[in-house]
Structure formats: C-alpha cells, structure tokens
Amino acid sequence: MALADDIRVLSQAPVFSSLPDDALRLVAFGAEKKVLSGGQVLFREGAPAESAYIVVSGRVAIVTGGRGEPQGFAGPGTLLSELALITRVERKFTAVAEGDLEVLRIARALFRRLMEEYPQVAVIAEARIRENITRLAAEAGAMQPRFG
C-alpha cells in the first residue's frame, strides 16, 4: 500500500483521528509494516507489549483465555494494544490472522517521539485512558450486585 493509504488507515483510529497529516506521515514512515497469512499469530496473550498494531487490511481474530474460538474480530482501522503505546503491559489476548493480513507496528518509542513533536497527542492519549478507566469502572459497578 502507498503512504497515503497508511495515513488514511491511521486516521481512522481514535488516538490518531484528529492529528494533522504531517503527524500521521511521521507515524506512517516510522511504523513497521507486517504481512501475515491466515492462521499466523500476530501476538500472544500474556506476552510483553512494546508496541501497538493497526490493521491496514484483512481481519484479526481475538482469542482469550487459551480458547480456540475467537471472542471477536478486528478489521481495518482498528488499533490493537493501544495502552502499549504509553506503558509496559501484557497482551490481553492472542491476535490471529483470519486470512491475508497487513498491519502497521507502532513502537512505543515512535509514539513517544510523536508526543514530543505534537504535544496534542499526549492530551488525546490522556483522554482515551480516562475514557477507558471510566468505562471499566462503570462495568465493574454494574457487576457489583452479582458479587454482593
């Protein structure tokens, strides 16, 4: 795919959607392109995550808890392991190519450089983290009666 296609896909992810083209170009140039065939594992649950991946084309099956059956799927524009862009975490699921798959690997170091050059990225990342924590707290609160 051309650089313009990579930029278009990057702009679909919420953390990148409001960035100017030159910031997206920096990510597209610095990201590592990976191509997988159906059945190949992109990453495994529990492994250290030092990067995130954005799906450029194809589909990823999301598998958790060692189960063989996918619990969901991710297609073009989906950012996998977003929190790995900010801090050290473990992968929360195994990602398996459903067929031909192309992804961009975005290393934490690249994201840090992006935040240094474009401070608004840090504000966006902080807001995304806050939204995720709020959502998780609400989900946990909704489950409280089950454990009371």
Automatic annotation (TrEMBL):
Gene3D superfamilies: Jelly Rolls (2.60.120.10). It comes from the Bacteria. One of its GO terms (molecular function) is DNA-binding transcription factor activity. Residues 15-115 form the Cyclic nucleotide-binding domain. GO terms for cellular component: cytosol. PANTHER family: CRP FAMILY TRANSCRIPTIONAL REGULATORY PROTEIN, DNA-BINDING TRANSCRIPTIONAL DUAL REGULATOR CRP. This is Cyclic nucleotide-binding domain-containing protein.
